[in-house]
Design a protein that fits this description.
alpha/beta; Beta-carbonic Anhydrase, Chain A; 6-stranded mixed β-sheet; 10 helices
């Protein structure tokens, strides 16, 4: 008896069939190695759950290339040993301490619904959901520290004063808030003691990426994770 396939899911099942042909018939040796030897990805990629920004599709990654964590607005909570039931922290720990990835990439994107929801909460519009409002509030530190700085065109490291920015201005520059949230999450990664230890040993590197949905451009942080620069000419 054949399983019932809902019309909406037919495309997905066809995709699995195509993957089976490519991975198990045309490149069986690779899949056999992944099954027998286990996964050894070099990259933990933390991405948004947004259906338009699938990290494997964007990067043309093969099976075994990426260990992927996806959540609303690609946010990273700071280290908190009390957060026992936390899928984000658990995935990060497994990737760093067990898989020993060499790179952590936080991939954000333009027109992010999670960041839009965050901006709405700042304006006092309570989100009528059970969990989303609290989750997107993780973007607060990055928004305050980095987005306002970018909008002002100032640099705190040089001792310049950062002016207050109203919510309308923040909303008009959502792409800067999205990038600021990435930088805030990079800062949060440094609160994990075993991440900081591996970085200090030169065994782990952190990166921030921002994908522009409107034209397909990718922006990435510099070596110090201080500014975003275009990657694709």
């Amino acid at each position: 008896m054949q399983a019932f396939i809902h019309p909406t899911l037919i495309k997905l099942f066809d995709g699995i069939k195509n993957f089976q042909q490519r991975a198990y018939e045309q490149d069986f040796a690779n899949m056999k190695g992944l099954v027998e030897d286990g996964q050894q990805p070099k990259v933990l990629l933390i991405a948004c759950s947004d259906s338009r920004v699938d990290p494997a599709i964007l990067t043309n990654a093969e099976p075994g290339d990426l260990f992927v964590l996806r959540n609303v607005a690609n946010l990273v909570p700071s280290y908190d040993i009390e957060g026992k039931y936390d899928g984000a922290r658990a995935a990060i720990e497994y990737a760093v301490r067990d898989l020993e990835v060499e790179h952590i990439v936080i991939l954000g994107h333009a027109r992010c619904g999670g960041i839009h929801a965050f901006l709405k909460t700042l304006s006092g519009q309570k989100i009528q959901r059970d969990f989303i409002g609290d989750w997107v509030s993780l973007a607060m530190d990055g928004c305050v520290h980095y987005a306002i700085e970018q909008i002002n065109g100032s640099d705190n490291d040089l001792g310049e004063t950062v002016r207050e920015v109203d919510l309308d201005t923040l909303s008009e520059h959502q792409h800067l808030v999205e990038r600021a949230a990435i930088r805030g999450s990079l800062d949060n990664l440094l609160t994990y003691p075993w991440i900081k230890q591996r970085i200090d040993k030169g065994e782990l590197n952190l990166h921030g990426w921002w994908f522009d949905l409107e034209n397909g451009d990718l922006w990435a942080t510099d070596a110090e994770n201080t500014v975003f620069l275009p990657v694709i000419d």
